[in-house]
Design brief:
The structure holds two protein chains of two kinds.
Chain A: H1 7-22, H2 28-55, E1 63-69, E2 79-84, H3 86-109, H4 116-135, H5 139-157, H6 164-195, H7 200-210, H8 216-232, H9 241-244, H10 250-259, H11 264-271, H12 273-278, H13 280-303, H14 307-328, H15 331-359, H16 375-389, H17 396-410, H18 416-441, H19 455-470, H20 485-490, H21 507-529, H22 541-547, H23 552-571, H24 578-597, H25 602-623
Antiparallel strand pairs in A: 1-2
Chain B: H1 2-20, H2 25-51, E1 63-70, E2 75-81, H3 83-102, H4 111-130, H5 134-155, H6 160-193, H7 200-203, H8 210-227, H9 236-243, H10 246-271, H11 273-300, H12 304-324, H13 328-359, H14 375-388, H15 395-410, H16 412-437, H17 452-470, H18 473-490, H19 492-502
Classes of the chains: A mainly alpha, B mainly alpha.
């Protein structure tokens, strides 16, 4: 069974290639079968392998499949090999299952698009690259998947390439994430030159033996990897690309920019957590970055007018929670939230897609009152939104967020500030979520509903609704079930956190406070955007700043983009060439001047000869 | 004998193609295709035959041909083939076929003479990669020059005369320095041993003072740095690449630049090990400047071919960095980069050439939205651009990554700056693919997409790039022993350092 592991990425790779080469000649039905079927097959295989893994784990709790040696130069021998352990399996299942549901949804959602085959080719390529990233047994192969998903993200943001806005958004996403990737690459050079391998497990082993915790080299290595992670996961200071990435088709936003690719940074840090443990300052920085990003993005989400941008900022904010958890050393809590977030955020995006298709509008202030006509989308939003905001006990998001909040207090790196920030974030999350739902589905109806959704869309939404509700029961806190199955499953890879601060705040109190934060957010949203309130966008200075994402775009434009553009403009004529071009001109000019002397008049020549002779004689005489 | 026949086939093929064109131009094209194809198959045969068994460490050449020639000056017609030349010859004939195919419809004037020049350039390149006698090397080095000059000057675009002249002056003048250095080296060798010879193997390990070594090395270095090109000797390249016909650009970018890199590896490092070591930090810095400067200028270009031309400056900076980094990983990376760059950039020139042939312009501003009308070409260009900006899975990544990985050991600071080149590559890459194929189709282009010949050409190049990107081992194995020899001669302490790391 395990030997079929390679097929999980290979099938979508193959179908992507087929669709890219021949898809334009195929019927839509056939494109849909190949496009969605390939990911479905991968999901089924992943499920079978996963079941086997859970029931009878392989020796050492990991299975390695060597395919071939990628390249061999000196002692550098990265392999193309897959490594399946509990965290890879968790990610694999999330990617293939959520991926399959989104593909299914797209079969119908994208049905009228002229680039149907191209869309599925890109999406399949994405799934294949993401699986490669997840299963890679060495950092170089992971980097291949990492760049591959970046490419697909770029291609899909710019999918409707005729609109220059989309093209710009695509290149922005690509360039900004590649800034992070450059740091990642340097990190690889450093790791290899110091530890002599890029194999993840071997690397972690050697690092923990050879490097002293807190040493400069460990800090540098972890910081460089973090650079890659913040780029891909849209955290400060490289978060600016994600809101613009919403230019892509909505299923893309759901799959790449919410459920899977943007969480690759979280996965990378969890995968290499040993390095981060060896570098406490960097780990602390992860927590700080997560917290600040989480709060700033939540505030931005509150100020957005565009439905998808609300969700984009929400994604940035929720990944902030995951980074906070990573920074605290609560590795499995981060992955737990990654999983539930994949469910409910995919659900919200897909539901948003239904709304956008139905009313051809993304501006929240031009919607309203849609709950009766778009019942499924409405309920999807309610369920997904409740999970996002953390409706206690019956939604998945509650449990995962609760675990992070609890460990932000109880963990060795936890403290009151992280805890308070986390609670504030929970309140803000609830507020912007219900603002979104209120503005879209309540109040007077402004937009006209044009289309109904069909079976595939319904199935995907309902499946994700179910997952968003029950997905949290895989890991329940002591006061409610008390079966941390997921944490136990991951514990062979990710060491559980010691709970050392058991002071005035207990797990139960944290859960209660989080519930209160949820309730307050809901109530506040009702008061601010509920019945009888004017539905106008806020125009205060702070709201404007939040709308613009706190001015990062502007600052980067002034600090990097414009100076670089200036440099490109001024240097484009190649200054090095100037003297050479001038050399030619000088020669021509010189010849023109000297040519004057060739008059053909003998008297001038004689005078010249006489003068020259005199000059030479004079020099000879004087020099003596 | 097989080595001589490689050259003779091209020389004879060139002449017969010229003659045949008087009656039938298509026949001339076919003769050219068949001659280059025959060479390709011959080389492929040698590769397959020799790849199985291990080369004995004592023998430098896998295949040799050695005739008495001008014996009073110790000049022998000596050709030798080792792994490095084998890999580069395969590239030469592969791109040679591409060049012939790319001219099939583009070249309509003086078809016979065109193919004569094309094949003779290839013959010159073959000789350069095979020469085991420095005089023979210089001869072929010059033989490349004249037909290339004619290719640019006769079949080029608007400013072809300027570009051709500039190309000729740069390479000719720098070649003269090399000639002086070659003769001086032979004289020095005679002083030391009493034997006057130009034979490569005998001239290795010639005893000389460090000062003389540095001076002679500079003579070689100038010629190779111009050809590579290294900053600041690159300025002939954008003009020549831009003005040349597609076949000319493919051969310039894919092969002529590689002769510069080949010269560095084959001659500069082993002949002047001490001087190379002294100058290595400087050359690595020059390489890094080239990486960033080339990329920066590529971003600013309005002309599609000029953009690609500057990307070559950037990519060859990686080669320079790798050659002088002084360890096996970087050197092998540099060779992979040479081969992969030859294919990816050659293919980008084919794309640019196709666009010019169809659109009659190279201005990016006049393009845009071409995906609508040419999705296949757009898709091919996308893959090639991704190769060029170093996407893993495609060839250039392997080369650049190995170079940087090796260079990191030699100099951390320079390597970090060089890595920024990957970021800069993103900027020019996106400008190429988005500028031409995305955005609104403002100029309402409606054009035929790829024909089967164009498909075959670009498709096979893309397949090669994937192959190098995913399994470069056959190439690495082929060039390994030659590079190890260079390494032993030039950087003995580099090997010691790597061995030290292992422990």
């Amino acid at each position: 069974m395990y030997r079929l592991l390679w097929l999980i990425p290979a099938i979508p790779f193959a179908s992507a290639a087929l669709l890219a080469l021949f898809g334009s000649g195929w019927s839509r039905r056939w494109i849909a079968i190949v496009g969605a079927g390939s990911v479905g097959t991968s999901a089924a295989l992943a499920l079978l392998i996963g079941a086997k893994f859970v029931l009878s784990p392989p020796i050492g709790n990991a299975y390695v499949q060597h395919l071939w040696t990628w390249m061999r130069s000196g002692e550098f021998r990265p392999e193309v090999a897959f490594y399946l352990d509990p965290i890879a399996l968790l990610m694999l299942l999330v990617v293939t299952f959520v991926g399959f549901l989104i593909h299914l949804y797209s079969v119908e959602y994208m049905a009228d698009d002229e680039g149907y085959a191209r869309f599925f080719a890109y999406m399949n390529l994405f799934v294949a690259s993401m699986i490669t990233l997840v299963l890679a047994n060495n950092l170089l192969l992971l980097y291949l998947g990492w760049e591959g998903v970046g490419l697909c993200s770029f291609l899909l943001i710019g999918f409707w390439y005729r609109d220059p806005v989309n093209v710009r958004a695509a290149s922005k996403a690509f360039i900004v994430t590649r800034v992070g990737d450059t740091a990642f690459a340097v990190g690889l050079f450093l790791l290899f030159s110091r530890l002599g391998t890029l194999d993840v497990q071997e690397l972690m082993r050697r690092a923990s033996v050879q490097w002293i915790p807190g040493s400069a080299i460990a800090v540098a290595a972890a910081a460089l990897l973090l650079g890659g992670a913040v780029g891909k996961s849209a955290q400060l200071p490289l978060q600016t690309w994600l809101p613009d990435a919403m230019a892509g088709p909505t299923p893309t936003s759901a799959l790449i920019h919410a459920a899977t690719m943007v969480t690759a940074g979280v996965y990378l840090i969890a995968r290499t957590h040993v390095l981060f443990t060896l570098a406490p300052p960097v780990q602390f920085a992860v927590a700080i970055i997560g917290t600040v990003t989480m709060l700033l993005a939540a505030l931005s989400a509150l100020a957005q007018r565009d439905m998808k941008r609300v969700l984009a900022y929400s994604t940035i904010s929720q990944i902030g929670y995951m980074f906070l958890a990573l920074g605290l050393g609560a590795w499995s809590a981060a992955l737990f939230h990654l999983m539930t977030h994949a469910f409910f955020k995919a659900l919200l995006f897909l539901a948003a897609g239904v709304v956008i298709h139905a009313v051809h509008e993304q501006d929240l202030f031009r919607m309203g009152g849609l709950r009766s006509e778009l019942r499924l989308a409405f309920w999807s939003f309610v369920i997904g939104g409740s999970a996002l905001a953390g409706l206690p006990l019956i939604t998945a998001g509650f449990f995962s967020k609760d675990l992070i909040l609890w460990q932000s207090w109880a963990g060795p790196n936890g403290n009151a500030l992280f805890w308070i920030a986390g609670m504030t974030g929970a309140l803000l999350t609830s507020l912007y979520t219900f603002r979104l739902i209120g503005l879209t589905f309540y109040g007077p109806q402004q937009a006209h509903v044009k289309t109904e959704s069909g079976a595939a869309v319904r199935f995907a939404l309902i499946a994700l609704c179910v997952l968003s509700l029950i997905g949290g029961y895989v890991d329940t806190p002591p006061h409610f079930g008390g079966v941390p199955a997921l944490s136990n499953f991951l514990s062979s890879v990710l060491p559980p956190l010691e709970e050392i601060h058991i002071g005035p705040i207990t797990e139960t109190i944290t859960a209660l406070c989080a519930s209160v934060a949820f309730g307050c957010g809901l109530a506040l949203a009702y008061l601010l955007y509920g019945p009888g309130r004017a539905r106008v966008p806020a125009r205060a200075g702070l709201a404007k700043l939040g709308l613009a994402g706190w001015g990062f775009d502007l600052a980067y434009d002034r600090m990097f983009v414009r100076p670089l553009q200036w440099l490109v403009r001024t240097s484009k004529d190649d200054i090095v060439d100037v003297p050479i071009r001038d050399l030619g001109q000088t020669a021509v000019l010189g010849s023109r001047i000297l040519r004057r002397a060739q008059t053909g008049a003998v008297r001038w020549y004689a005078a010249g000869i006489a003068l020259g002779t005199a000059a030479i004689l004079a020099i000879a005489f004087l020099a003596r | 004998m097989i080595l001589l026949s490689l050259i003779v086939i091209l020389l004879v093929g060139g002449i017969s193609s010229w003659i045949a064109a008087r009656r039938d131009e298509t026949a001339a094209r076919w003769i050219a295709t068949v001659s280059v194809g025959a060479d390709f198959l011959l080389t492929l045969g040698v590769w397959i035959a020799k790849s199985g068994h291990q080369q004995p460490a004592m023998r430098r050449w896998v295949e040799e041909c050695n005739f008495e020639w001008i014996s009073q000056f110790g000049i022998r017609f000596h050709l030798g083939l080792d792994g490095l030349s084998l890999a580069l010859l395969l590239l030469t004939y592969f791109l040679g076929i591409v060049a012939v195919l790319a001219s099939w419809t583009e070249i309509q004037r003086r078809v016979g003479f065109f193919h004569f020049n094309l094949l003779w350039v290839l013959a010159g390149i073959t000789g350069v990669f095979l020469a085991a006698d420095l005089f023979v090397f210089y001869l072929f080095w010059e033989l490349m020059l004249v037909p290339m000059y004619l290719l640019i000057g006769i079949w080029g675009h608007e400013r072809r005369i300027y570009a051709a002249t500039k190309f000729f002056l740069f390479t000719q003048l720098s070649g003269l320095f090399m000639l002086i250095a070659i003769v001086a080296l032979a004289v020095l060798h005679q002083h030391a041993t009493g034997v006057f010879t130009f034979d490569y193997e005998q001239l290795l390990h010639t005893a000389m003072s460090p000062r003389a070594g540095r001076l002679l090395m500079l003579g070689f270095l100038v010629a190779f740095a111009v050809k590579l090109p290294a900053f600041p000797f690159h300025t002939w390249l954008p003009d020549a690449h831009t003005e040349a016909p597609t076949a000319g650009s493919v051969i310039l970018a894919g092969l002529l630049l590689k002769t510069g890199a080949y010269g560095l590896i084959r001659f500069v490092l082993p002949l002047f090990p001490e001087a190379s070591r002294t100058l290595a930090p400087l050359m690595m810095t020059v390489g890094v400047i080239g990486i960033l400067y080339g990329a920066l200028l590529a971003v600013g270009q309005a002309d599609l071919k000029r953009l690609v031309a500057y990307t070559s400056v950037s990519h060859m900076g990686f080669v320079l960095l790798g050659v002088f980094a002084g360890n096996q990983i970087a050197l092998e990376g540099a060779v992979i980069q040479m081969i992969s760059h030859g294919i990816s950039t050659g293919a980008l020139f084919v794309v640019a050439g196709l666009l010019q042939e169809k659109l009659h312009t190279r201005e990016i501003e006049k393009m845009g939205g071409l995906w609508v009308t040419m999705p296949a070409l757009g898709g091919a260009a996308l893959v090639l651009v991704m190769a060029s900006l170093g996407l893993p899975g495609l060839g250039d990544f392997v080369g650049e990554f190995l170079v940087l990985l090796g260079a990191y050991r030699a100099n951390v600071g320079l390597t970090i700056v060089a890595t920024l080149g990957l970021l800069a590559a993103t900027l020019y890459g996106l400008r190429f693919s988005q500028g031409a194929f995305q955005g609104p189709n403002l100029h309402h282009w409606s054009l035929p997409d790829l024909r089967w010949r164009e498909w075959a050409m670009l498709g096979s190049m893309i397949v090669c790039l994937f192959w190098i990107g995913l399994y470069p081992q056959p190439i690495l194995n082929t060039v390994r022993s030659s590079l190890a020899a260079v390494q032993r001669d030039a950087f003995p302490q580099g090997i010691a350092r790597i061995a030290g790391d292992k422990r």
